[in-house]
Amino acid sequence: MSCRKWMRMEPTDEYERLVKFFVENQLEFDGDEEVDTDIVKCYKVTTGNDKLVGAVVLAKREGKYIIDGIAVNQESRKHRIGEIMLKKILEQVKEMGGTELYLVARAPEFFRKNGFTEVSADNAPNFFECKQCPQYMVSCHPEIMKTVIA
């Protein structure tokens, strides 16, 4: 899938590379997850020289589909890569028969613009590792969000 003529979005099995990318872009901290997560599909967005500029991981947690990570590097954010990745993940969930998609948003306004609404932790899969992050409620004030897939 082409994002822009100089970028390419494709499935990848380079999960560790994507996690490193999330950490570098301050969307994850480098620590072990406390909750079992089953990875469903990973996508990367790269430039012609294989520079990673965007990534997204679709997973299942407690039987529910979640975005386990989504990021676009700072200099590429104006190219709508986040919207393209989100659309692809929503299509994937729908193809697999899913009706909801959850995430923990560090940029909740972006997700609100794309149909997500805030939900309480009691109405979502366990995103417990947020509370273990040193950024939690210091420089990061995440919202648990979901969207319903028609």
Automatic annotation (TrEMBL):
<keyword id="KW-0808">Transferase</keyword>
<dbReference type="GO" id="GO:0016747">
    <property type="term" value="F:acyltransferase activity, transferring groups other than amino-acyl groups"/>
</dbReference>
<protein>
    <submittedName>
        <fullName>Acetyltransferase (GNAT) family protein</fullName>
    </submittedName>
</protein>
<dbReference type="InterPro" id="IPR000182">
    <property type="entry name" value="GNAT_dom"/>
</dbReference>
<dbReference type="Pfam" id="PF00583">
    <property type="entry name" value="Acetyltransf_1"/>
</dbReference>
<dbReference type="InterPro" id="IPR016181">
    <property type="entry name" value="Acyl_CoA_acyltransferase"/>
</dbReference>
<feature type="domain" description="N-acetyltransferase">
    <location>
        <begin position="1"/>
        <end position="134"/>
    </location>
</feature>
